[in-house]
Write a structure and sequence with these properties.
It is built from seven helices and five strands, in the order H-H-H-H-H-E-H-E-E-H-E-E. A hairpin with an 8-residue loop joins strand 4 and strand 5. It has 218 residues and is an alpha+beta fold. Strands 2-3-1-4-5 form a five-stranded antiparallel beta sheet.
Length: 218
């Protein structure tokens, strides 16, 4: 196998990995990202490309499924759309490794990158409501019935008690609400008002996909 072919596939994979990582950084500039995941996206195309170049054409069809198993998560991605970038990077690597028309990989990159950037820029599919999860911990001796109603009515357009469960061997209760926060509400003040009523225990206000990441006043 010509060395030039190996070097071309490897170099093209590195270039595509770098370009895909730039798209990833751009689309995650507001929500944040980890460097380790960005490096994963960067290195997948050259790794997949060189594996496919090294195998013979007879084995290519059988090995494609095996190549896609190279990516296995030891931890769950923070954002489900991160999986899209994994397959984006791997598909680019596959094209670099098996396609004789290398311009195809750039067409593929431009189309997919454009879709990802446009979707992120216009907020397509993004939930426009302020529905959040509210978790309030109270001591066992505190009667929660109606305790937080006035604060919830004042700061939300709607709320519903979703779940009540005991914690710490029954010494504490955890109340889980689904709340629709008013746009003008100061969330910090909202948390403080609840905190004063629950015996200074933990109060957590979070978006559904960011459990326990917004407020924790413990």
């Amino acid at each position: 196998m010509p060395t030039s072919e190996l070097l071309w596939a490897l170099g093209l994979g590195v270039l595509l990995g770098f370009l895909i990582s730039l798209v990833y950084i751009f689309t995650h500039r507001k929500s944040g990202y980890s460097q380790s995941y960005m490096l994963t996206v960067l290195m997948l195309p050259p790794i997949v490309a060189i594996v496919l170049v090294m195998i013979n054409s007879t084995a290519s069809a059988l090995s494609l499924a095996g190549v896609f198993t190279l990516c296995r998560y030891r931890t769950v991605p923070a954002d489900p759309k991160d999986v899209t970038y994994v397959f984006f990077a791997m598909a680019a690597g596959v094209i670099c490794g098996i396609s004789e028309n290398h311009w195809v990989v750039f067409v593929f990159y431009v189309v997919i990158a454009a879709v990802l950037i446009i979707v992120e820029s216009v907020g397509y599919g993004r939930c426009k409501t302020s529905t959040m999860t509210l978790k309030i911990t109270i001591p066992e001796i505190l009667n929660y019935a109606g305790l937080f109603d006035s604060v919830l009515d004042q700061n939300t357009t709607s709320w519903k008690l979703k779940r009540v469960k005991t914690t710490s061997y029954g010494s504490l209760f955890e109340l889980v609400y689904v709340v629709e926060i008013k746009e003008t509400v100061d969330q910090k003040q909202f948390i403080d008002d609840l905190w004063k009523l629950n015996g200074n225990l933990t109060v957590i206000l979070s978006l559904f996909k960011y459990e326990e990441m917004v407020f924790d006043t413990k």
